[in-house]
Structure formats: structure tokens, C-alpha cells
Specification:
Elements (H helix, E strand, L loop, with lengths): L1 E7 L5 H7 L6 H8 L4 H22 L8 E3 L5 E3 L5 E7 L2 E7 L4 E7 L14 H9 L3 H19 L16 E4 L2 E7 L6 E7 L6 E5 L7
Parallel strand pairs: 1-10
Antiparallel strand pairs: 1-5, 2-3, 4-5, 6-9, 7-8, 8-9
């Protein structure tokens, strides 16, 4: 089972998050948050961590030390002493987090906003690019492929060393250097595209919206 949770930004809750939630995290994370100039950027990062630990508590009924997140040499986060795999992504007003114990996991969400998709032609194999520009809604098709690729690369765990044009999205699967990945679209908001990816076939998923309420 793969669990996905998400939350929307809320300016009204921001000061409460800084006061009540941020101090629970390691000093390097707190320092990072305090450097953000926009409250939106700070809250996106904070919410990602809150969703992660809250979903682990609700799903597995365990509380992990918030200081136990490590990173591999390519920047992929993981827990040193726990088999829970996770991935976090955010775009504009939404933060998403996915957790599982079944396999390495990746998630990506992007708001569908007008861009010049031709700037990204070199990052798509010819067959993918043809499908995108031949679509009735090329912008939407582009974001669908892009979030699939981002999620797959996150699950792979080698970061920006992977060229998006080096692998092609096929029918629910793709392969990077002999490693097979599966993906699935997660419908959260009609203005966004979101996909998850895993090294195992994605059969069961559970989606939950989490509201981060302001404390009195």
C-alpha cells in the first residue's frame, strides 16, 4: 500500500507553524526555513516535514525522531534506522507527501501554468515529444509527462545525474539502467498534475487531505 497525503498553504496558520512546529526540527532545517524571504516558500518546506511525520504516526502508529532524516550523495532523503520510504513535493499552493514500506518511492506535483514547452523539447525522447505536441492540450500533456519523469527519478535516487531524455514513459512503466519503474497519476486538484513512481507495481493507494489547523 502507498499512502499519499496533501495540504494547502494557509497564511493564517503561518505564525503558529513557526512558533509551535518549526522548533521540533533540527537546527539546520530551522536555519534553512529562516532564510526564506516569502512566507509561502517557508511554509511549503515546513508542511512537507509535518505531513511526513504526521502520516507516519497515523498510518504506522510510530513516532520517528525528526532529526533522523539523512541524505544520500545525490540528495535523496531517507531514514537511517527505519524501512519507511518517503517522498515530498510541492508546487504553488499544494504540498504532497507519500510513504510506503514496499519500495523506493517518488512523487511530484506541478501546477499547470502557461510555459513555453518547446524549451524542454531536448529533455523528451522523440516519441514522447510527438505525443505531447500532438495532444489536444499540449500544456497538460507536458506536465503529465514531466511529473512522471520527476517522480521516477526521485524513486531512482540518483538526482540530476539522470537525463530525462534517456528514458521513455511507456504504458505504466519505464526503465532506467535496467531498473524498472511503475507510475500512477494521483488526482488531487484539477489545476495540478501529480504522479507517483515505485520500483514495484502500484496496486493500492490511499489519498488523504490533511488540514494544518491554527492552534489557539
Amino acid at each position: 500500500m502507498i499512502y499519499i497525503c496533501y495540504s494547502y498553504l494557509c497564511e493564517e496558520n503561518h505564525e503558529s507553524l513557526l512558533k509551535n512546529e518549526l522548533p521540533k526540527f533540527p537546527i539546520d532545517f530551522i536555519t534553512k526555513i529562516n532564510k526564506f524571504r516569502k512566507w509561502q516558500d517557508a511554509q511549503l518546506s515546513i508542511l512537507g516535514r509535518i505531513l511526513l511525520f504526521r502520516s507516519i504516526k497515523e498510518v504506522f502508529n510510530i513516532e520517528l525522531n525528526k532529526k533522523n532524516i539523512l541524505y544520500n550523495e545525490y540528495g535523496k532523503p531517507y531514514f537511517k534506522t527505519n524501512p519507511i520510504h518517503f517522498s515530498i513535493s510541492h508546487s504553488e499552493e499544494i504540498v504532497v507527501c507519500t510513504i510506503t514500506v514496499d519500495s523506493e518511492i517518488g512523487i511530484d506535483i506541478e501546477k499547470i501554468i502557461p510555459i513555453n514547452i518547446y524549451n524542454f523539447e531536448s529533455q523528451m525522447p522523440p516519441n514522447e515529444w510527438l505525443k505531447i505536441i500532438s495532444s489536444e492540450t499540449p500544456q497538460v500533456a507536458f506536465y503529465d509527462y514531466w511529473t512522471k519523469k520527476e517522480a521516477i527519478v526521485k524513486a531512482y535516487g540518483y538526482g540530476q545525474t539522470v537525463d530525462f531524455a534517456s528514458f521513455e514513459i511507456l504504458q505504466n512503466t519505464t526503465t532506467i539502467n535496467t531498473t524498472q519503474f511503475y507510475y500512477k497519476e494521483i488526482k488531487i486538484d484539477e489545476n495540478y498534475k501529480c504522479n507517483i513512481a515505485s520500483k514495484k507495481p502500484i496496486i493500492d493507494t490511499f489519498l488523504s487531505k490533511i488540514s494544518i489547523m491554527k492552534k489557539s
